[in-house]
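Reminder to self: tokens first, then the designed residues, so the page reads top to bottom the way the pipeline ran.
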């Protein structure tokens, strides 16, 4: 018997499809077709955003929801804007970005934007304890922390000063922010 591989898994690696190339191709082919449906629920005459994964599980959502639709081209553009914002804020190739929040379009945009900017996304569980969050930020050498809720920021504020590698903390669903961090709306506009 021989220990030689029957094929070299690295052959033609330059021709392989990356996740960002796949997103670019999906936006080119499917441009104005639906990529996500973000559910909204009416509450006392006001629209209240309901968090949850958008798109694949939309069939199981309550029939009284209204939807904000995002096309593949819009999704691609938001990912590229997020990537540009990460770079503008100082993300370097191979910097880790910790992302904490529920499954949502914003979570995916932060994840894909990080990849497009050359960073390493680190998904965090919404159920992680403060000590687990601190450990994961230290262990990954997080340069950025992206959060879905202001409540998450209050958890990080207790130990953020101890995380030497962190350059920025970004909130995607809140007007409240760390004093040194631009609001999420500004982050999108930077790119």
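Designed residues (191 positions):
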């Amino acid at each position: 018997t021989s220990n030689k591989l029957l094929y070299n898994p690295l052959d033609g690696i330059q021709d392989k499809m990356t996740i960002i190339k796949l997103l670019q191709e999906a936006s080119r082919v499917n441009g104005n077709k639906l990529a996500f449906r973000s559910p909204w629920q009416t509450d006392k005459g006001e629209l209240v955003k309901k968090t949850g994964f958008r798109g694949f599980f939309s069939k199981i959502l309550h029939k009284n929801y209204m939807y904000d639709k995002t096309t593949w081209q819009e999704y691609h553009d938001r990912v590229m804007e997020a990537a540009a914002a990460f770079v503008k804020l100082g993300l370097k190739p191979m910097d880790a970005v910790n992302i904490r929040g529920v499954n949502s379009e914003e979570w995916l945009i932060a994840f894909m934007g990080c990849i497009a900017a050359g960073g390493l996304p680190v998904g965090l569980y919404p159920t992680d304890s403060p000590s687990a969050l601190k450990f994961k930020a230290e262990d990954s050498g997080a340069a950025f922390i992206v959060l879905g809720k202001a409540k998450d920021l209050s958890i990080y504020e207790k130990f953020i000063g101890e995380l030497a590698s962190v350059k920025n903390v970004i909130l995607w669903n809140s007007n409240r922010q760390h004093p040194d961090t631009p609001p999420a709306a500004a982050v999108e506009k930077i790119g």
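The chain has six helices and seven strands.
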